[in-house]
Specification:
- The chain has about 240 residues and is an alpha/beta fold.
- It has 7 helices and 9 strands.
- The protein has a 9-stranded mixed beta sheet with strand order 1-2-3-5-4-6-7-8-9, sandwiched between helices.
- Helix 3 crosses helix 4.
- The two termini are about 25 Å apart.
C-alpha cells in the first residue's frame, strides 16, 4: 500500500488517499492519537461501484470516522479513478440505454451488476489485508453499503463481523442464494418508495438472510432519501458488534 496524500480535516478526521497496485482508495481515521488502542474498521461501498469520492459516501465516511472508526472505500474496476476498457464503456452505455428506454428487465440487471460484484470482491479482500496490517487499525471489521457486494464479502470473508446494507440496488441471483448462508448480525435499510427497487423484492431478500440477528429499518421516501438519523442508529449497531 502506497499513501499518496494525507490531510487533517476540520472535524479532526484524518483522510489518506492510497493506492494498492491498481486499486485507488481512501482511508478516514479518527485522528493521529498514537496512544489509543487500535480502532475497528468499516468497509464502505456505494451501489454498483459508484466512485469513492461520491459526496454522500464521503459525508457518511467522515461522520463514521469522527465517531471512532477507521473507514475505507475503494474504486471498483472501471469506476471512479480507474480506467475503463472499451468493454466497460459498452456495458455501461448499453445499461443506461436500457434503463432510459424502460427495457431494463432482470436479465439486463444480471448482465450488468453480476460482473461488477465478481470483479469488486477480490479487490476489497486484498484491500482488507493491507488495511489490517496498518498500525492503529484492528478488528473486528464491519461493512456498510452496497448490498450485493456486501453479501459476497460477508460469505467469503470471516473477518467481517457485522454489516449494514442499503436496499436500494439490484441483487443478482447468485447473491440472493448466498444470502441464505449469512450468519453475522445485519442492519437492512429500506426506502419504502424507492423508484428503482421494488419494496417486495427487498422484503423477500430480508426474509432470505440466514442471520439470526437481522433488523429492518423502513422509511418513507425515494432512493436517496435515507434519513440522516439512520447513520446514528448505525453507530449503535456497530458499537454493539465491533467495540
Amino acid at each position: 500500500m502506497h499513501l499518496t496524500s494525507e490531510q487533517r480535516l476540520d472535524d479532526g478526521v484524518v483522510e489518506r488517499e492510497f493506492t494498492l497496485g491498481e486499486i485507488p482508495g481512501t482511508l478516514w481515521t479518527p485522528g493521529p492519537d498514537t496512544s489509543a488502542a487500535p480502532v475497528p474498521l468499516i468497509l464502505m461501498a456505494h451501489n454498483n461501484g459508484l466512485p469513492k469520492a461520491q459526496s454522500r459516501l464521503v459525508a457518511r465516511a467522515r461522520h463514521t470516522a469522527a465517531a471512532g472508526y477507521a473507514v475505507a472505500s475503494i474504486d471498483a474496476a472501471g469506476c471512479g479513478d480507474r480506467p475503463r476498457s472499451d468493454a466497460d464503456e459498452r456495458a455501461r452505455a448499453d445499461f443506461r440505454r436500457a434503463v432510459q428506454a424502460g427495457e431494463a428487465d432482470e436479465g439486463v440487471f444480471e448482465a450488468f451488476v453480476g460482473p461488477l460484484v465478481e470483479q469488486a470482491a477480490p479487490d476489497w479482500r486484498t484491500t482488507l489485508d493491507a488495511l489490517l496490517a496498518l498500525p492503529g487499525i484492528g478488528g473486528p471489521v464491519g461493512y456498510s453499503g452496497w448490498t450485493a457486494l456486501g453479501i459476497r464479502l460477508a460469505v467469503a470473508e470471516p473477518r467481517i463481523a457485522a454489516a449494514g446494507f442499503f436496499a436500494g440496488g439490484y441483487v443478482p441471483r447468485a447473491q440472493r442464494e448466498e444470502a441464505r448462508r449469512l450468519s453475522i448480525p445485519l442492519l437492512f435499510l429500506l426506502q419504502w418508495d424507492d423508484e428503482g427497487n421494488p419494496r417486495q423484492r427487498a422484503l423477500d431478500l430480508f426474509d432470505a438472510f440466514g442471520s439470526r440477528e437481522k433488523t429492518l429499518h423502513a422509511n418513507l421516501g425515494g432512493h436517496t432519501g435515507t434519513p440522516w438519523f439512520e447513520l446514528e442508529d448505525g453507530f449503535r449497531f456497530y458499537d454493539r458488534h465491533l467495540t
